[in-house]
Structures are given as C-alpha cells and as structure tokens.
C-alpha cells in the first residue's frame, strides 16, 4: 500500500508515475491499442478480449474516460448505440504502443533464444 501512496503523491508531478498510473489497469494498453482503429462499440471491444468480463471492460473504460484518454459517445437511437474512441491525448499514446510492440517482440525473441541455449 505504501507503493500506491507514493505513486499517488507523484501523479501529475513525475511523468513516469503519471503514465504508470494512467495505464495501470490490466487491460488498459490493449484497450488503447484496439481503439487505434477508430470508434469501437463496447461489445466489439469485448469480443477482441474474450478473457475479459463485461464488468471489467466497463470499469477499465470508465477509468480511461475519467483520465481523458478515451471518449464515450452515446447516440440517441433504438437500440442505444455507444462508441468509444481515443481522445486527442489518447491518440498521442500511439507511439508508446508501437514502442511497446517493438520491445515486446525483441523480448519474446530473446526468451525463445535462451530456451534453445
């Protein structure tokens, strides 16, 4: 718990603590990745992450929305239609996701190489 309070104290002051806090949810990075393609409906996101529950996705989207990374648009239609997309600051996370992909692939390759050693 001490680590969380330290993180809270540094939020908005330290860029690393701030970024870590914003994307700390287990699924946050994947949600941001899937929203890169444009506005996406809730169930479409849920289908892309079959091990995630409806409630967990709802909580994660609300947190990302509260942090200003994701926007929710509800259309007045029957049946109701809701779409999620990246905000302007959420769009700026794209290079971070690309860098994570590059690093992740390098790490996977290294781990596979060490299995053969």
What does this structure look like?
The structure is a single chain. With 117 residues, the chain is mainly alpha-helical. The protein has one domain: Winged helix-like DNA-binding domain superfamily/Winged helix DNA-binding domain (Arc Repressor Mutant, subunit A, Orthogonal Bundle). It has seven helices and three strands, in the order αααβααββαα. The protein has a three-stranded antiparallel β-sheet. A hairpin with a 5-residue loop joins strand 2 and strand 3. The longest helix is centred in the C-terminal third of the chain and has 22 residues. The termini are far apart. The mean pLDDT is 88.
Indicate the CATH topology. Arc Repressor Mutant, subunit A
Mean pLDDT: 88
What sort of overall outline do the alpha carbons produce when their principal axes are compared? globular
Strand sequence of the main sheet, in spatial order?
1-3-2
Per DSSP E runs of 2 or more residues, the count of β-strands stands at: 3
Q: How far is it from the N-terminal to the C-terminal residue, by CA?
A: 40 Å
Order of helices and strands: HHHEHHEEHH
**Which stretches are low in confidence, meaning pLDDT under 50 for 5 or more residues running?**
none
**CATH superfamily assignment?**
Winged helix-like DNA-binding domain superfamily/Winged helix DNA-binding domain
DSSP helix count?
7
CATH class assignment: Mainly Alpha
Query: Which structural class should the secondary elements be placed in?
Result: mainly alpha
Helix fraction bin: 55-70%
CATH architecture: Orthogonal Bundle
